[in-house]
């Protein structure tokens, strides 16, 4: 099973849809005030979101105000829009709601981030012979914006090796922010060391030097390294590893 970042983001968004004020969720009264049947309103929801949404699914939400649904934010937004559009100058509510609603363009919420045919070694380094783009994966625009990552700075690569376990595991696909060119203490960075691509945690010491840390606790195999401030400046930082995009469970 592969868990993608899109699924995690949709799950995270769903958590924010679980609670709405009781007045907002008085679905039956709001629908009745608009003069709509359950079937008609369910059809409008389906037109809005571009996904299948049945009368039975809406009926369950109306019957149980505490029910959880990923459609709830669309339903409430649709009610707000319909109630705003059908008010006349006298403040009366028309019985004829708008019949055409444009479905939300979900593709506009995501950016296709390139996946490069390179591997970051969570070990002693993997030599890079090529860095062709092999595919792209959709990443939420909001996630990138909230993380301070520009679309041009987002890159996806794969991790190989066990030195960063259990933070990063062999086979993880990670998002890298290439817009960060200097190390930040405590963060994980991908870098090029004499033609080898590596991924480690950078810890700045009081004397200005840096400890290059493997998160794996077996230090007999994965010993930490120390670099002077000058040597760290000579490293070619590829970018900061921001999050795991895919992980095989």
Description:
By secondary structure, the chain is an alpha+beta fold. The protein contains seven helices and eleven strands. It has helices at 5-16, 27-33, 38-49, 55-63, 72-85, 141-146, 229-234; strands spanning 2-4, 110-121, 126-127, 133-140, 154-160, 173-177, 188-193, 196-204, 210-213, 225-227, 236-248. Strands 1, 2, 3, 4, 5, 6, 7, 8, 9, 10 and 11 form an eleven-stranded mixed beta sheet that branches. β7 (188-193) and β8 form a beta hairpin. α3 crosses α4 (55-63). The radius of gyration is 25 Å and the shape is elongated. Mean pLDDT is 78; it is low at 1-24, 86-99 and 126-130.
Topology summary:
Elements: E1 2-4, H1 5-16, H2 27-33, H3 38-49, H4 55-63, H5 72-85, E2 110-121, E3 126-127, E4 133-140, H6 141-146, E5 154-160, E6 173-177, E7 188-193, E8 196-204, E9 210-213, E10 225-227, H7 229-234, E11 236-248
Parallel strand pairs: 2-5
Antiparallel strand pairs: 1-11, 2-4, 3-8, 5-6, 6-11, 7-8, 7-11, 8-9, 9-10
Helix pairs in contact: 3-4
């Amino acid at each position: 099973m592969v868990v993608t970042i899109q699924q995690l983001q949709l799950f995270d968004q769903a958590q924010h849809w679980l609670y709405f004020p009781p007045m907002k969720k008085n679905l039956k009264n709001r629908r009745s005030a608009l003069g709509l049947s359950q079937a008609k309103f369910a059809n409008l929801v389906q037109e809005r979101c571009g996904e299948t949404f049945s009368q039975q699914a809406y009926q369950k939400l109306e019957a149980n105000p505490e029910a959880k649904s990923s459609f709830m934010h669309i339903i409430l937004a649709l009610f707000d829009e319909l109630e705003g559009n059908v008010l006349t100058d006298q403040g009366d509510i028309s019985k004829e709601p708008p019949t055409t609603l444009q479905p939300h363009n979900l593709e506009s919420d995501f950016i296709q981030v390139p996946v490069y045919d390179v591997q970051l070694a969570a070990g002693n380094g993997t030599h890079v012979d090529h860095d062709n783009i092999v595919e792209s994966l959709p990443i939420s625009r909001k996630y990138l914006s909230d993380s301070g990552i520009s679309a041009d700075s987002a890159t996806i690569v794969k991790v190989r090796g066990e030195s960063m376990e259990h933070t990063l595991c062999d086979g993880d696909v990670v998002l890298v922010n290439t817009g960060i060119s200097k190390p930040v203490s405590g963060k994980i960075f991908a870098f090029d060391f004499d033609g080898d691509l590596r991924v480690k945690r950078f810890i700045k010491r009081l004397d200005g030097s840096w400890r290059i840390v493997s998160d794996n606790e077996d230090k007999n195999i994965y010993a930490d390294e120390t670099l002077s401030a000058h040597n760290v400046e000579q490293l070619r930082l590829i970018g900061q590893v921001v999050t795991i995009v895919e992980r095989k469970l």
